[in-house]
Write a structure and sequence with these properties.
The chain has seven helices and 13 strands. By secondary structure, it is an alpha+beta fold.
């Protein structure tokens, strides 16, 4: 377990990640899982139901917006990015029991429409995240490289484009990021990472919150929104939007659709 703020900044700078960081107790994590699964059930027949959980979940689910602002989460992130924090997007990565779903080796920032790479993903476990359930795997130090990607659009790949690195990754170099419910990892947007299928009888549930500093700017032609969750925005590079107050009401659903479409157009641009 990490002991000091100095540990967080130094390990992140060296390795491109830090873990585990305890942000809530197991009972709180279980309560959030219950809230998530109730929300899933409420939109099971909605044609776009899964989209509320895959991106911008903070705009559709009030409990997610509150978690993105929780000092237990933002304080460690601020040691890396500074006090002024925006959430670009956030979404759940869920692998059903005995599911073939996986995440290929990739770097997050390749298609994200950002001018810089000062981005931190806070990945919070709401269920046991183990090797058997398909935990993330990181290659230490790989955040210092920018590598081309190939789009596969594989149906079992949880990534938007099924993107994967165009270089081979030596599996022996990777470490397993196992987390207990209520723990999180932080990783850099350029870090090589992947995860295997869930071979257990329980769901593997994690929430990925994408933090950027308010100083971050967008590439030409991008018009994405973000949510201010800590500090101030002195730059105005993103349209600031409010997070959800309730859970999947008509207002949240309409807001989510509008903001998500703007980001989708950026991510699906040819590069």
């Amino acid at each position: 377990m990490l002991d000091t703020d100095h540990d967080i900044a130094d390990r992140y700078r060296r390795d491109g990640f830090v873990f585990p960081i305890r942000v809530m107790d197991a009972d709180h994590a279980a309560a959030l899982r219950t809230e998530l699964e109730a929300a899933e059930a409420s939109v099971r027949d909605h044609k776009d139901g899964q989209q509320f959980f895959r991106e911008y979940s903070n705009l559709a689910l009030g409990f997610v917006d509150r978690l993105t602002r929780d000092p237990a989460v933002t304080e460690p992130v601020s040691k890396i990015l500074g006090e002024d924090l925006l959430v670009l997007t956030c979404g759940f990565f869920i692998k059903e029991p005995r599911s073939p779903a996986y995440v290929s080796w990739h770097q997050d920032l390749h298609y994200w429409g950002l001018e810089g790479d000062d981005e931190v993903t806070a990945w919070i476990a709401l269920s046991p995240v183990t090797v058997a359930s398909g935990c993330m795997r990181f290659v230490p130090g790989s955040h210092t490289s920018i590598v081309a990607h190939t789009d596969t659009h594989h149906e079992d790949n949880l990534l938007t484009r099924g993107q994967e690195l165009s270089v081979e990754v030596d599996e022996a170099d990777a470490i397993n990021v196992e987390l207990a419910p209520g723990e999180m990892s932080l990783h850099h947007g350029r870090l090589f990472h992947a995860s295997a299928p869930n071979t257990t009888d329980d769901r593997r549930i994690g929430l990925a919150i994408r933090y950027i500093p308010a100083s971050m700017s967008q590439i030409d032609g991008a018009s994405m929104a973000a949510t201010l969750v800590r500090g101030q925005d002195r730059f105005g590079h993103f349209d600031l939007v409010d997070g959800a107050k309730g859970t999947l009401g008509p207002e949240e659903i309409a807001h989510h659709a509008e903001v998500s479409e703007r980001r989708r157009k950026t991510i699906m641009r040819e590069t």
